[in-house]
User: Fold this.
Amino acid sequence: MTILNTLAENAIRYPDRKMMVSCYRSNKQELTWSELHEYSDYVASWMDEHLHTKTPVVVYGHKNPLMIVCFIACVKSGRAYCPIDVNVPLARVEAIIGEVHPELILCTEKLDIESPNIVELFDKSGLSRFGKKRISEEKYVSSEDVFYIIFTSGSTGTPKGVQITRDCLDNFISWASALGSGIDEDKHYTFLNQAPFSFDLSVMDLYLCLYSGGTLWALSKELQSDIKSLYNSLGESNVNKWISTPSFADVCLTDPMFSSNLMPELTDFLFCGEILTNKTVKRLHSRFSDSYVVNTYGPTESTCAVTDVIISSEINEKYSPLPVGRPKKGTWIRITDENGNELPDGEKGEIVIVGDSVSVGYWKNAERNELVFGTTTVQGEKYRFYKTGDEGYLIENMLFYSGRIDNQVKLHGYRIELEDIENNLLKIPGILQAVVLPRYRDGKVSSLVAIVVSQDDKFNEDDSDALIKQELKKNLPEYMIPKKILFAKDLPRTNNGKIDRKKLGGTI
Assistant:
């Protein structure tokens, strides 16, 4: 049974159930299960008749339920979808579109670019253009077809697209449906959606919802920034499964109102995307004493997550930092040295993921694919592997994450290549050198600091901080903008001529 077959069955079983509720500061948008199935059929059939290639379709928007209609329509028509959130800067949107070269761009929000390939679908009335023909299941994406492409930060300053197949997604769902207290097929679950659909954490809440016939309670960015409206929405939600970054839970925990009194139906906290701290777990245990707290780990290249562990009070007391769990069935974790040799228990090295949910590689990036992807044999069967660039160690098959080997960090759950920001800083006229460093608090990245050297002291700390940030916002999303810009006459170097990041780290 694949996710698309399951979705069709759920639409028959629960036609009038709300599949998605998108919450904004002043209103809501809703979609039922029957609407999702029917509308996605109509759009898929239109694609099948009007498109000439199987090129991935770009879907642009923010938390609009019709984005889900577009996602499912794409895969029903045999095409991958590529989500882009409205909060991605226009220059970066254009870079992604330039990489994909889509025959079709579906927009649930206004996209200010000139393209004959844009089709706007702002509300349900816009569906009339697609007709009412249904699509045959024979058209659906097959097992090894790419299901979606999510673009992540790239060290060159150009985003790279991670391709996930239908098999990868089905294997992930099969495992993720048992996380924490698991999913009972006879119960109606409501899943919290915090992350935008262009961030792979959303794969967990969206597809567990689609798999179980549940309801997705989606929080818009504007709602998340308004604490009063946020708590009102959470209190109304009846959420059972909380999926977010730990940072979002930390924001909610700042108010004593955030407790089981506000959300009595909540049974599971499922965390991914960044380090979960002991302090956060302790506060959650005290506020939600009957809820599971589950820590998971996995990069976008492995389909969201591949390890899990329930963080009990005993585990929270025993370990600091906390473990990220044991690998799911069909996945093996290897810790290797710089030469690729496997290391024994307790020794730190690069985390290499082998298994049935590893990506088939980056979109049109053969050079990078050759560096980090490959195949190996486990128990007589061939599997793909991915060299994560993460550092960690194993103790009795329990994985512990230790940070990054390279210049990549996680901030509020977003994966950021520091070189991506540096390359965009160097595009600003007058900046000669730039380095971006993470600041840590409670063992995880709390903010970013940029140190720049300018030509003839063109920039200074009195009035140039805001100017540089404004320039960066033309090309980078808000979460990648350094919180602070520092100015230097030169940057220290190591003996081999590289910027001495360690030495600079002591100055911020």
